[in-house]
Amino acid sequence: MKILQINTVYGKGSTGKIALGIHDCCKQQGHECISAYRYAEPKDGAFPDTITTSTWLDCHIHNRIVRYTNMQGCFSHICTARFLSKLSVYKPDVIHLHNLHGSFLNIPMLFRYIKKHRIPVVWTLHDCWAFTGHCPHFVMDRCDKWKEGCRHCPRIRSYPRLSLDLSSFMWTLKRKCFTGVENLTLVTPSEWLAGLVKQSFLKDYPVTVINNGIDLNIFRPVESSFRRDHGIGPHEYMLLGVAFGWGEQKGLDVFIRLARQLPEKYRIVLVGTDETVDKKLPENIISIHRTGSQQELAEIYSAADLFVNPTREDTYPTVNMEALACGTPVITFNTGGSPEIIDGSCGCVVDCDDVEGMMETIVCLGENKLSFSSSACLLRASGLSNAKCYKKYLDLYNSVSKNKIVDFPD
């Protein structure tokens, strides 16, 4: 079987690592696989069995136009035409789409090509972008315009910041492009996102849930000197938060409030911060800008007593899985797919924005009025292997390819 993956990036970031893992799994099982991504960066080097869809200059121009128009995926005509000509040579049995919102493809051209050649498609939705007129997330705005047609977008000034509100036009364009594909199966990493898809204009497609996974060879309980190195005593209770892009969406304000109101024995560590975030933090929060490797991150997870994730918008946060795999229980807000990762044996879920409830639960854990064993966390994490995730994708490829009707010209 010949599989083609398309994603913004490859080998880095959450979606890029998933694409790489699926690629390697396909090769190991004897399938052909090519992965396409926007452009190669000199520091990354060359990846085997990959092609680029664009160039840095083309993506830069595309992105600049998008910032003024909101017409994501409506440019890059020449680069996309060249890429589609490569597809005609490769002739994939299945196309697996990931993130398409990265100013690297002309989306109408891509979907016209897919419909014309009747190629089976698997599309993993890592967020909500595919069925909105602009944003990848909308929960914090309590917006449901995407169900009938976006307009007056409340996130026009947030990432990606736009000058014009063309959300209504883009919603209509996406509906036209994304519907009517003869053989398309949607995949979501969480039941929460699957539920939203079934309320959108994509509702007529089959939707299957394949949870993201992690590398359990890396994320596991390990010896750690982190507490000693950062002056956290054996009788202190270490609270850990990990995110990349700290802000209100990830609950930075919640950690600031916890730091100011919890007793001194509770020590907060935040990973993934930067100098801008540091200026907002109280002095009693330990700030770690970055880790040198995933192994180092596993050491920090292993050192923590509790992983705290007050995220307000998340599809299926990898950090929850990583914490559990290192034997650390999780407390999270009841938002998105975050609560799906834990159960009553390995963590707690509190209502979104119920900081008092989160604080009370943390204190109960710190005073041993409530406890979760490391073994229970590890048992829950044992089902979160990325190898299981990749195997499910291979099974899905086999399923959709049996019904394939591919019509490539000779």
Overview of this protein structure:
It is globular and about 65 Å long. Helix 1 crosses helix 14 and helix 11 packs across helix 13. The two termini are 19 Å apart. The chain is an alpha/beta fold and 410 residues long. It is 36% helix and 14% strand. The strands form two sheets. A seven-stranded parallel β-sheet has the order 3-2-1-4-5-6-7. The chain has a six-stranded parallel β-sheet with strand order 10-9-8-11-12-13, sandwiched between helices. It is built from 14 helices and 13 strands.
How many helix segments?
14
- Which stretches are low in confidence, meaning pLDDT under 50 for 5 or more residues running? none
- Estimate the global geometry from the Cα principal axes: globular
Strand order of the largest sheet: 3-2-1-4-5-6-7
The count of β-strands is: 13
Computed Rg: 22 Å
Q: Helix/strand/pairing class, anyone?
A: alpha/beta
Instruction: Please state roughly what percent of the residues sit in beta strands, choosing from under 5%, 5-15%, 15-25%, 25-35%, 35-45% or over 45%.
Output: 5-15%
Order of helices and strands: EHEEHHEHEHEHEHEHEHEHEHEEHHH
Distance between the termini: 19 Å
How much helicity do the residues have? 25-40%
Let me know the average pLDDT: 93
Largest sheet: 7 strands, parallel
